[in-house]
Amino acid sequence: MFKLKVHWQIIIALVLGVAAGSALQSMLGEGASESSWVEICEFFGKTVFIGLLKMIIVPLIFSSIVTGIAGLSGVKGFGRLGIKTLGYYVLSSVLAITIGLTVVNVMKPGLVDGKPNPEVKEFINNNKNFDKKGESVSKDATGLREEKHALGVVGDLAERMIPTNVFKAASDNGAMLSLIFISLLTAFGLMAIEGPGKEAVVSVIGGVNKLMIKVTGWIMCLAPIGVFGLMTATIAQTGPSFLLAMATYMVTVLIALGLHFFVALPLLLVLLGRVNPWRHYRAMRDALLTSFSTASSSATLPVTMRCLQDNAGVSKRTSSFVLPLGATVNMDGTALYECIAVLFVAQVMGASLDFAGQLSVVVLALLTSVGVAGVPSASLVAIVIIIQNVAEDQPWGGGAMAAVGAIYAVDRILDMCRTSVNIFSDSCGAVIIAKSEGEQGVLTDADSGTASGIEAEE
Ligand code: ASP
After folding, report:
1. What is the rounded CA–CA span in Å between residue 229 and residue 294?
2. Ligand 1 atom showing the smallest separation from residue 375 Cα
3. What CATH number was assigned to the domain covering residues 6-457?
4. What's the CA gap between 67 and 60, in Å, rounded?
5. What is the pTM of this model?
6. In this model, does residue 445 exceed pLDDT 70?
7. Which residues line ligand 1 (CB under 6 A)?
């Protein structure tokens, strides 16, 4: 029977969603947000599709990390893989931030003839909503800051990583760092003990992992309906006036993300992994389309895992280790975006950031991108934290919140793009590391991307 492949189904759903969303926007204008059509679309997109993906994140991350590490040959194998993974995360994030910093300094989206862009300023000042939006984001950030450790952002990260209650951490999708920590500890513990108890635990967790991968396949059958719902709701609620005033800013972000996605990451694939980037794009297309529609790295994780194992031929061992960590810790698109957004706000507020100021933005973007959760608009909170840190004694701290509100208003489309960059970078890391570990099945199929089922399992 003729059956359209999943990525085609998703692409068609995306296009239909854009058309339906634009139609709703032009018929209902501002009122589109409250219409029951948008509510129905959000139900299928957010409640059902994203909800189901989120539902399996905790057991999937836990079981993948534990089985992944249990499959490594002792602590030595883990150490080697750990160092390679960390090295890749740092390299790709630094590359991303450098691109972001360069593009924002060249394009200067917040300035016109060296002065704060009057159009953007007027747009921000005239829209009282932005104050409220900015304030609500900064409230989340203030919560984090109050809990902040004397050791600064690093201390804050460590505090969030060590859970005081295992069950609480496992019941909270926002506590990914804690969950990774628990999973690593369990895996190491299992490596250190012997006897029948160990075998039983390892085989149960392995079974849970298989089960979660199966469930992911079922959830993906709903992807076209979910994607249609998400796209329709997004487009219907994004009026054109927002997009026009913030156009230069949005173009700046898109150029930088594009350079990282189409130039820097493929270069890493070729130079470090000796693999054909085109094949890798093809192998990852379901995951890229899912991340683009959901704007959530965490919700996309099950799909990323599946693409990497089934289409790119990366072993379970490597993908189970590199991906769950990467979905929370390695966020190239987010780090790049934070840099551009903070410098844009500084430009609009007329605050010049010297070299030292920009350097602190870079360091904070690198650190906060580690702690940002893989959910929609999560970087906004990090952006507020960075602004509060670098602008503490400067006048732009207070007024900047309305600008953050304006960024929020146009965030969705940029979020969809940066999330795709985030998950693509994780997948490149997994492929490069798999190659370096001597895995033979990586992107060797002439027609990879067709779910050929290559699994270089040990
Ligand atoms: N939405 C992004 C992700 O899930 C995080 C962010 O940059 O807001 O990867």
Report:
1. 10
2. 4
3. 1.10.3860.10
4. 10
5. 0.81
6. no
7. 295-297, 331, 334, 372, 374-379, 415, 418-419, 422
